[in-house]
Amino acid sequence: MSVLTKACKLLNKLSIRYYSGKVGIIGVPFDKGQKKQGVARGPEAIRAAGLIQELKMLELDVQDYGDVLYHAEDVDKVNNMSHLNHVASCTSHLSKQIQQVLQEGRQALTIGGDHSLSIGTIDGHVKEKKDIAVIWVDAHADLNTNKTSESGNVHGMPVALLTTELADYWPYLPGMDWQMPMLSIRNIAYIGLRSVDRYERLVIEKFGITAFGMEDIERYGIHDIIHMALNKIDPHNTKSLHVSFDIDSLDPLEAPSTGTPVRGGLSLREAIHLMEEMYRTRRLNAVDLVEVNPQIGSERDVKNTVEAAIHIIQAALGYTRRGLRVPKGITDMPLQTTQ
Protein backbone atom coordinates (compact mmCIF):
# COMPACT_ATOMS: atom_id res chain seq x y z
CA MET A 1 0.00 0.00 0.00
CA SER A 2 1.44 3.36 -1.04
CA VAL A 3 2.02 6.24 1.37
CA LEU A 4 -0.59 8.27 -0.51
CA THR A 5 -3.21 5.53 -0.14
CA LYS A 6 -2.50 5.23 3.59
CA ALA A 7 -2.82 9.00 3.97
CA CYS A 8 -6.14 9.05 2.13
CA LYS A 9 -7.52 6.28 4.35
CA LEU A 10 -6.40 8.12 7.47
CA LEU A 11 -8.09 11.32 6.30
CA ASN A 12 -11.28 9.40 5.58
CA LYS A 13 -11.26 8.01 9.11
CA LEU A 14 -10.71 11.48 10.54
CA SER A 15 -13.42 12.97 8.38
CA ILE A 16 -16.16 10.63 9.64
CA ARG A 17 -15.27 10.44 13.29
CA TYR A 18 -17.86 13.05 14.31
CA TYR A 19 -20.85 11.81 12.31
CA SER A 20 -23.45 9.81 14.26
CA GLY A 21 -26.86 9.89 12.54
CA LYS A 22 -28.33 11.24 15.80
CA VAL A 23 -29.80 14.73 16.03
CA GLY A 24 -30.76 16.90 18.99
CA ILE A 25 -33.14 19.80 18.32
CA ILE A 26 -33.05 22.92 20.49
CA GLY A 27 -35.60 25.70 20.07
CA VAL A 28 -34.62 29.25 21.02
CA PRO A 29 -37.69 31.52 20.93
CA PHE A 30 -35.54 34.60 21.45
CA ASP A 31 -36.00 38.09 19.98
CA LYS A 32 -34.03 40.44 22.25
CA GLY A 33 -31.05 40.65 19.88
CA GLN A 34 -33.07 42.92 17.60
CA LYS A 35 -36.21 45.07 17.71
CA LYS A 36 -38.81 43.38 15.47
CA GLN A 37 -41.43 41.25 17.16
CA GLY A 38 -42.23 37.81 15.83
CA VAL A 39 -38.85 36.13 15.37
CA ALA A 40 -39.31 34.39 18.73
CA ARG A 41 -42.09 32.39 17.05
CA GLY A 42 -39.67 30.89 14.54
CA PRO A 43 -39.11 27.58 16.39
CA GLU A 44 -42.85 27.10 16.87
CA ALA A 45 -43.59 27.71 13.18
CA ILE A 46 -40.83 25.40 11.96
CA ARG A 47 -41.84 22.58 14.28
CA ALA A 48 -45.52 23.02 13.36
CA ALA A 49 -44.64 22.65 9.68
CA GLY A 50 -43.49 19.07 10.34
CA LEU A 51 -39.74 19.39 10.94
CA ILE A 52 -39.41 16.39 13.22
CA GLN A 53 -41.48 14.12 10.99
CA GLU A 54 -39.40 15.13 7.97
CA LEU A 55 -36.16 14.35 9.80
CA LYS A 56 -37.41 10.96 10.97
CA MET A 57 -38.06 10.09 7.32
CA LEU A 58 -34.28 10.33 6.91
CA GLU A 59 -33.96 7.43 9.40
CA LEU A 60 -32.35 9.75 11.91
CA ASP A 61 -32.49 9.25 15.66
CA VAL A 62 -34.19 12.56 16.54
CA GLN A 63 -34.58 13.97 20.04
CA ASP A 64 -36.29 17.31 20.64
CA TYR A 65 -34.86 18.95 23.76
CA GLY A 66 -37.58 21.60 23.77
CA ASP A 67 -37.03 25.33 24.07
CA VAL A 68 -34.31 27.10 26.03
CA LEU A 69 -35.71 28.77 29.14
CA TYR A 70 -33.87 31.46 31.06
CA HIS A 71 -34.25 34.20 33.65
CA ALA A 72 -32.62 37.52 32.77
CA GLU A 73 -30.37 38.76 35.55
CA ASP A 74 -30.46 42.40 36.60
CA VAL A 75 -27.03 43.65 35.47
CA ASP A 76 -25.53 47.01 34.60
CA LYS A 77 -26.38 48.25 31.13
CA VAL A 78 -23.74 48.71 28.44
CA ASN A 79 -23.93 51.65 26.08
CA ASN A 80 -25.45 50.79 22.68
CA MET A 81 -26.12 47.12 23.49
CA SER A 82 -29.85 46.49 23.73
CA HIS A 83 -31.10 43.87 26.22
CA LEU A 84 -27.62 42.60 27.05
CA ASN A 85 -28.93 40.94 30.23
CA HIS A 86 -31.37 38.87 28.18
CA VAL A 87 -28.75 37.98 25.57
CA ALA A 88 -26.24 37.00 28.25
CA SER A 89 -28.62 34.75 30.16
CA CYS A 90 -30.22 33.07 27.14
CA THR A 91 -26.95 32.31 25.38
CA SER A 92 -25.35 31.06 28.60
CA HIS A 93 -28.11 28.47 29.01
CA LEU A 94 -27.93 27.63 25.31
CA SER A 95 -24.17 27.02 25.45
CA LYS A 96 -24.69 24.43 28.19
CA GLN A 97 -27.51 22.79 26.25
CA ILE A 98 -25.33 22.52 23.12
CA GLN A 99 -22.59 20.89 25.18
CA GLN A 100 -25.08 18.34 26.52
CA VAL A 101 -26.38 17.47 23.05
CA LEU A 102 -22.85 16.99 21.71
CA GLN A 103 -21.79 14.97 24.75
CA GLU A 104 -24.68 12.60 24.03
CA GLY A 105 -23.26 11.94 20.57
CA ARG A 106 -25.82 13.97 18.63
CA GLN A 107 -25.56 16.69 16.03
CA ALA A 108 -26.98 19.92 17.45
CA LEU A 109 -29.74 21.60 15.43
CA THR A 110 -30.72 24.97 16.86
CA ILE A 111 -33.76 26.80 15.50
CA GLY A 112 -34.29 30.45 16.35
CA GLY A 113 -34.88 33.10 17.18
CA ASP A 114 -32.54 35.89 16.14
CA HIS A 115 -28.87 35.50 15.23
CA SER A 116 -27.52 36.59 18.62
CA LEU A 117 -28.23 33.02 19.77
CA SER A 118 -25.17 31.84 17.84
CA ILE A 119 -23.05 33.31 20.63
CA GLY A 120 -24.31 30.40 22.73
CA THR A 121 -24.28 27.68 20.09
CA ILE A 122 -20.74 28.34 18.93
CA ASP A 123 -19.45 28.83 22.48
CA GLY A 124 -20.89 25.47 23.47
CA HIS A 125 -19.49 23.79 20.36
CA VAL A 126 -15.99 25.18 21.00
CA LYS A 127 -16.08 24.17 24.66
CA GLU A 128 -17.06 20.60 23.78
CA LYS A 129 -15.09 19.95 20.56
CA LYS A 130 -12.24 22.49 20.98
CA ASP A 131 -11.11 22.64 17.34
CA ILE A 132 -14.01 23.83 15.18
CA ALA A 133 -14.57 25.73 11.93
CA VAL A 134 -17.63 27.86 11.20
CA ILE A 135 -19.42 28.61 7.95
CA TRP A 136 -21.45 31.80 8.53
CA VAL A 137 -24.16 32.01 5.84
CA ASP A 138 -25.63 35.49 5.95
CA ALA A 139 -26.37 38.66 4.01
CA HIS A 140 -24.64 40.53 6.86
CA ALA A 141 -21.24 40.13 8.51
CA ASP A 142 -22.45 40.54 12.15
CA LEU A 143 -19.02 41.95 13.01
CA ASN A 144 -20.01 45.16 14.77
CA THR A 145 -19.15 46.07 18.35
CA ASN A 146 -21.23 48.30 20.60
CA LYS A 147 -19.00 51.20 19.48
CA THR A 148 -19.58 50.69 15.76
CA SER A 149 -23.17 49.46 15.60
CA GLU A 150 -25.73 51.96 14.35
CA SER A 151 -28.64 50.09 15.92
CA GLY A 152 -27.27 48.61 19.13
CA ASN A 153 -28.84 45.28 18.12
CA VAL A 154 -26.74 42.38 19.39
CA HIS A 155 -27.77 40.14 16.49
CA GLY A 156 -25.33 42.24 14.45
CA MET A 157 -22.45 41.55 16.86
CA PRO A 158 -22.03 37.78 17.50
CA VAL A 159 -18.93 37.18 15.34
CA ALA A 160 -17.14 40.08 17.02
CA LEU A 161 -18.07 38.69 20.44
CA LEU A 162 -16.91 35.15 19.67
CA THR A 163 -13.49 35.71 18.11
CA THR A 164 -10.20 36.08 19.97
CA GLU A 165 -8.76 38.68 17.60
CA LEU A 166 -11.55 41.15 18.44
CA ALA A 167 -11.63 40.61 22.21
CA ASP A 168 -9.74 43.84 22.94
CA TYR A 169 -12.34 45.92 21.10
CA TRP A 170 -14.96 45.35 23.82
CA PRO A 171 -15.57 46.95 27.22
CA TYR A 172 -16.40 44.77 30.20
CA LEU A 173 -19.77 43.13 29.54
CA PRO A 174 -21.76 42.42 32.71
CA GLY A 175 -23.35 38.98 32.68
CA MET A 176 -21.00 37.65 30.01
CA ASP A 177 -18.24 36.39 32.30
CA TRP A 178 -19.10 32.80 31.29
CA GLN A 179 -18.15 33.55 27.68
CA MET A 180 -14.50 34.06 26.77
CA PRO A 181 -13.64 34.33 23.06
CA MET A 182 -11.95 31.04 22.11
CA LEU A 183 -12.48 30.96 18.34
CA SER A 184 -9.94 32.39 15.92
CA ILE A 185 -11.42 34.55 13.20
CA ARG A 186 -9.28 32.49 10.80
CA ASN A 187 -11.65 29.60 11.50
CA ILE A 188 -14.72 31.44 10.19
CA ALA A 189 -15.77 31.79 6.55
CA TYR A 190 -18.63 33.92 5.30
CA ILE A 191 -20.85 32.91 2.39
CA GLY A 192 -23.56 35.13 0.88
CA LEU A 193 -22.50 38.60 2.05
CA ARG A 194 -24.09 41.59 0.33
CA SER A 195 -24.78 44.15 3.09
CA VAL A 196 -21.54 44.90 4.93
CA ASP A 197 -20.96 48.03 7.03
CA ARG A 198 -17.81 50.13 6.54
CA TYR A 199 -16.30 49.06 9.86
CA GLU A 200 -17.05 45.42 9.12
CA ARG A 201 -15.35 45.71 5.73
CA LEU A 202 -12.32 47.23 7.47
CA VAL A 203 -12.15 44.30 9.91
CA ILE A 204 -12.52 41.75 7.11
CA GLU A 205 -9.63 43.32 5.22
CA LYS A 206 -7.43 43.93 8.28
CA PHE A 207 -7.62 40.33 9.50
CA GLY A 208 -7.83 38.68 6.09
CA ILE A 209 -11.13 36.99 6.96
CA THR A 210 -12.39 34.41 4.47
CA ALA A 211 -15.45 36.15 3.05
CA PHE A 212 -17.40 35.33 -0.10
CA GLY A 213 -20.07 37.74 -1.23
CA MET A 214 -22.75 37.25 -3.84
CA GLU A 215 -20.50 38.56 -6.60
CA ASP A 216 -18.00 35.81 -5.78
CA ILE A 217 -20.76 33.22 -5.97
CA GLU A 218 -21.81 34.61 -9.36
CA ARG A 219 -18.22 34.36 -10.57
CA TYR A 220 -17.21 30.93 -9.26
CA GLY A 221 -20.49 29.17 -8.52
CA ILE A 222 -21.73 27.96 -5.14
CA HIS A 223 -20.05 24.53 -5.35
CA ASP A 224 -16.54 25.93 -5.77
CA ILE A 225 -17.18 28.65 -3.17
CA ILE A 226 -18.09 26.05 -0.54
CA HIS A 227 -14.88 24.13 -1.09
CA MET A 228 -12.76 27.28 -1.31
CA ALA A 229 -14.16 28.27 2.09
CA LEU A 230 -13.54 24.85 3.64
CA ASN A 231 -10.01 24.70 2.25
CA LYS A 232 -9.23 28.02 3.94
CA ILE A 233 -10.67 27.33 7.39
CA ASP A 234 -10.18 23.54 7.58
CA PRO A 235 -7.36 22.65 5.17
CA HIS A 236 -6.66 19.25 6.76
CA ASN A 237 -10.31 18.12 6.97
CA THR A 238 -10.08 17.46 10.70
CA LYS A 239 -12.21 20.14 12.40
CA SER A 240 -15.71 19.75 13.75
CA LEU A 241 -17.91 21.91 11.50
CA HIS A 242 -20.62 24.40 12.43
CA VAL A 243 -22.98 26.14 10.01
CA SER A 244 -24.71 29.27 11.27
CA PHE A 245 -27.41 29.91 8.67
CA ASP A 246 -29.37 33.17 8.63
CA ILE A 247 -32.48 32.80 6.48
CA ASP A 248 -31.87 36.34 5.15
CA SER A 249 -28.93 34.93 3.19
CA LEU A 250 -31.62 33.77 0.78
CA ASP A 251 -33.10 36.22 -1.67
CA PRO A 252 -36.32 37.73 -0.25
CA LEU A 253 -38.22 36.16 -3.16
CA GLU A 254 -37.30 32.80 -1.60
CA ALA A 255 -37.66 33.74 2.10
CA PRO A 256 -39.58 37.00 2.59
CA SER A 257 -40.54 36.51 6.26
CA THR A 258 -37.37 37.77 7.91
CA GLY A 259 -36.41 40.97 9.68
CA THR A 260 -33.57 42.36 7.55
CA PRO A 261 -34.07 41.16 3.96
CA VAL A 262 -31.60 42.19 1.24
CA ARG A 263 -32.36 41.68 -2.43
CA GLY A 264 -29.98 39.72 -4.64
CA GLY A 265 -29.32 36.78 -2.31
CA LEU A 266 -28.84 33.05 -2.57
CA SER A 267 -31.38 30.93 -4.36
CA LEU A 268 -32.90 28.08 -2.36
CA ARG A 269 -31.20 25.69 -4.76
CA GLU A 270 -27.78 27.20 -3.93
CA ALA A 271 -28.50 27.03 -0.19
CA ILE A 272 -29.57 23.40 -0.40
CA HIS A 273 -26.43 22.50 -2.34
CA LEU A 274 -24.31 24.27 0.28
CA MET A 275 -25.87 22.18 3.01
CA GLU A 276 -25.62 18.97 1.00
CA GLU A 277 -21.89 19.55 0.61
CA MET A 278 -21.52 20.27 4.32
CA TYR A 279 -23.34 17.03 5.13
CA ARG A 280 -21.02 15.08 2.83
CA THR A 281 -18.01 16.13 4.93
CA ARG A 282 -19.37 13.85 7.70
CA ARG A 283 -18.04 16.42 10.17
CA LEU A 284 -21.04 18.73 10.46
CA ASN A 285 -21.74 18.71 14.18
CA ALA A 286 -23.92 21.79 14.62
CA VAL A 287 -26.39 23.83 12.57
CA ASP A 288 -28.15 27.07 13.51
CA LEU A 289 -31.19 28.16 11.49
CA VAL A 290 -32.17 31.68 12.51
CA GLU A 291 -34.21 34.80 11.75
CA VAL A 292 -37.43 33.20 10.47
CA ASN A 293 -40.15 35.69 11.49
CA PRO A 294 -43.73 34.38 11.07
CA GLN A 295 -45.19 37.81 11.82
CA ILE A 296 -43.70 39.39 8.70
CA GLY A 297 -45.47 39.11 5.36
CA SER A 298 -48.54 37.30 4.13
CA GLU A 299 -49.58 33.75 4.98
CA ARG A 300 -47.99 32.63 1.73
CA ASP A 301 -44.75 34.50 2.57
CA VAL A 302 -44.53 32.74 5.91
CA LYS A 303 -45.25 29.35 4.34
CA ASN A 304 -42.53 29.82 1.71
CA THR A 305 -39.99 30.96 4.32
CA VAL A 306 -40.69 28.11 6.75
CA GLU A 307 -40.60 25.55 3.93
CA ALA A 308 -37.27 26.96 2.78
CA ALA A 309 -35.91 26.61 6.32
CA ILE A 310 -36.98 22.96 6.48
CA HIS A 311 -35.46 22.19 3.07
CA ILE A 312 -32.16 23.68 4.26
CA ILE A 313 -32.20 21.68 7.50
CA GLN A 314 -33.07 18.46 5.66
CA ALA A 315 -30.14 18.93 3.28
CA ALA A 316 -27.78 19.51 6.22
CA LEU A 317 -28.88 16.26 7.84
CA GLY A 318 -28.78 13.91 4.88
CA TYR A 319 -31.71 14.43 2.52
CA THR A 320 -30.63 14.01 -1.08
CA ARG A 321 -32.49 15.31 -4.09
CA ARG A 322 -31.56 12.09 -5.88
CA GLY A 323 -34.03 10.27 -3.63
CA LEU A 324 -33.93 8.58 -0.25
CA ARG A 325 -32.32 5.20 0.30
CA VAL A 326 -34.55 2.14 0.25
CA PRO A 327 -35.35 1.13 3.88
CA LYS A 328 -33.81 -2.06 5.20
CA GLY A 329 -35.84 -5.16 4.43
CA ILE A 330 -37.42 -3.80 1.27
CA THR A 331 -34.57 -4.46 -1.15
CA ASP A 332 -35.65 -8.10 -1.63
CA MET A 333 -39.20 -7.19 -2.63
CA PRO A 334 -40.00 -7.81 -6.31
CA LEU A 335 -40.62 -4.70 -8.36
CA GLN A 336 -44.03 -4.56 -10.00
CA THR A 337 -44.27 -3.28 -13.53
CA THR A 338 -47.31 -2.27 -15.54
CA GLN A 339 -47.83 -2.83 -19.21
From TrEMBL:
Binding site for Mn(2+): 115, 138, 140, 142, 246, 248
Cofactor(s) essential for the protein: Mn(2+)
GO biological process, any: L-arginine catabolic process to proline via ornithine
Organism lineage: Eukaryota, Metazoa, Ecdysozoa, Arthropoda, Hexapoda
Alphabetized Gene3D superfamilies for the sequence: Ureohydrolase domain (3.40.800.10)
Keyword terms of this UniProt record: Arginine metabolism, Hydrolase, Manganese, Metal-binding, Urea cycle
Protein name (database record): Arginase
Keyword RNA-binding: no
EC numbers, comma separated: 3.5.3.1
Family of this protein: Belongs to the arginase family.
One Pfam family from the record: Arginase
UniProt-recorded Gene Ontology molecular function terms: arginase activity; manganese ion binding
SUPFAM superfamilies, per the entry: Arginase/deacetylase
InterPro entries: Arginase, Ureohydrolase, Ureohydrolase_dom_sf, Ureohydrolase_Mn_BS
Keyword S-adenosyl-L-methionine: no
